[in-house]
Amino acid sequence: MTLPGPLNPPSRLLMGPGPINADPRVLRAMSAALVGQYDPFMTHAMNEVMELYRRVFVTSHRQTLLVDSTSRGGIEAAFVSVLEPGDKVLVPVMGRFGHLLVEIAQRCGAEVHTVEVPWGQVAPYELIADAMEKVQPKLLAVVHGDTSTTVVQPFDGLSDLCQRYGTLLYADVTATIGGNEFLTDAWGVDIATGGLQKCLGGPSGSAPVTFSAHAEAVINSRKSIEAGIRAEGDAVASHPIRSNYFDMSMVFEYWSERRLNHHTEATTMLYGARECARIVLEEGLERFQARHLVHGRAMMAGVRGLGLGVFGDVEHKMTNIVGVVIPDGVDGEAVRGHLLQDFGIEIGTSFGPLHGKVWRIGTMGCNARQDAVLTTLAALESVLRREGFGLPAGGGVDEAYRVYAEATA
Ligand SMILES: Cc1ncc(COP(=O)(O)O)c(C=O)c1O
């Protein structure tokens, strides 16, 4: 058998809904030398990561750390550690990732209740409040920005509702963290889980997570340290967490002074996650978000300047992704194919009811920048014209320039 050749990926501008191009600084950090799991350098880096992500999540939650997995592993770790069979969960479903929360909660054996709104809309507060009164769940699980629809769910009033019913408030911030306002403590969020591959500008494979003292207490009530590393006096719960890998009570112990030998921390991913947070905080969280807002607006204006429609409730649009209505008669996949082959630019397709109807274009992380926006708009115009769709010459780039001129005025 001949060996495959050395890895030589093509040069791409990743302007989809994520993953996006990793910041070169993150990739450089990820090529740093490995150290042992308990090397003082490593444990110090773990502590630094906790502190850095407290600032990214805007929280003082002690349990702010990384789960070694893609973002859905962060969700699964939170749910399986909190939920016991029969526990009630309420999920507002606004798109694909609301369905994912339902799916994961159901697999934990929870009794899952939903309120559903059409894709592209946010769930009105009253709808959630009524359901909360009826269900009185242990967990209210909300996707902050549902990448599949590009819309951000407001959190106003949710923490008051949760306090009324003794409910834990969970947020999936995979697609929003860093680039959209998210205030864990001020909004009373107990658990939030994210990922690196969107606004944070890293590769997928590490999930920054944060847990309040309340959530930590719920999880620790089920603490059961595995045999082999169990010490005298360690609790053995009668109803342990149903996953070993995602048992946050043991993961917390690994990230504590005890340094319980639960798993082997993914050192290279930790280096990457650390650099992602450093990049955000060096620019300043507010300026980082403002940059996402400007380039997201420029992209949306450019899309409209090409005569294309924008999908969803734009009043609640995420800063970092725009949904573009594929015009009648245009083959959405052919356009994506030409963008990739001819220009090296990737934009996203959509799922479920939006498949074939909406493209998703992202402007996030190090790709939230003017040349990436203008290049994408110019390329899209060219490909659409070749596909026979008549559109205003230069209209996309001109409208984006207008937004940039306003932003610097
Ligand atoms: C909002 C949201 N939640 C969860 C996920 C799942 O993330 P992953 O693919 O990293 O497991 C994604 C992925 O795009 C997402 O956008």
Task: Map the helices and strands.
Blueprint: E1 13-14, H1 24-29, H2 40-57, E2 63-67, H3 71-82, E3 88-93, H4 96-107, E4 111-116, H5 125-135, E5 139-143, E6 145-146, E7 151-152, H6 158-165, E8 168-172, E9 191-193, E10 207-211, H7 213-220, H8 248-254, H9 267-283, H10 285-305, E11 309-310, E12 321-325, H11 332-343, E13 345-346, E14 358-362, H12 370-386, H13 395-408
Parallel strand pairs: 1-13, 3-4, 3-5, 5-8, 8-9
Antiparallel strand pairs: 2-10, 6-7, 9-10, 11-12, 12-14
Q: Looking at this structure, what is the CATH superfamily of the largest domain?
A: Type I PLP-dependent aspartate aminotransferase-like (Major domain)
CATH topology term of the largest domain: Aspartate Aminotransferase, domain 2
- Based on the coordinates given, report the CATH architecture of the largest domain: 3-Layer(aba) Sandwich
Work out the helix count.
13
CATH class of the largest domain: Alpha Beta
Family: Belongs to the class-V pyridoxal-phosphate-dependent aminotransferase family.
Organism: Demequina capsici
InterPro entries: Aminotrans_V_dom, PyrdxlP-dep_Trfase, PyrdxlP-dep_Trfase_major, PyrdxlP-dep_Trfase_small, SP_NH2Trfase/AEP_transaminase
Protein name: Alanine--glyoxylate aminotransferase family protein
